Amino acid sequence: MKTRIHFLGAAGTVTGSKFLVETPGFNILIDCGLFQGLKELRELNWQPFPFPAENIDLVLLTHGHLDHSGYLPRLVTEGFQGKIFGTAPSLAISAIILRDSGKIQEEDAERANEEAYSIHSPALPLYGVKEAELAIARFKSVAPGFWMELAPDIRARFQLNGHIIGTCFVELEIQGTRFVFSGDVGRSNDKLLPPPHQPMHADYLFLESTYGNRLHQKEDPETVLIEAVQKCIRKQGNLIIPSFAVERMQTLMYLLWKLMKRNSIPSSPVVIDSPMGNEVLRVFFEYPAWHQLPFEDLEAMRKQFLTVTSYPETWKTIDDPRTKIIIAGSGMITGGRVLTYLRYYIDKPQTTVLLSGYQAEGTRGRQLQEGAGEIKIFGKYLPVEAEILSLQSISAHADQQELLDWLSAVKKRPQQVFLIHGEPTAADALRVKIKDTYGWPVHIPHLNEVVEIEIPPE
Question: Which class does domain 2-214+396-454 fall in?
Answer without folding.
Answer: alpha beta
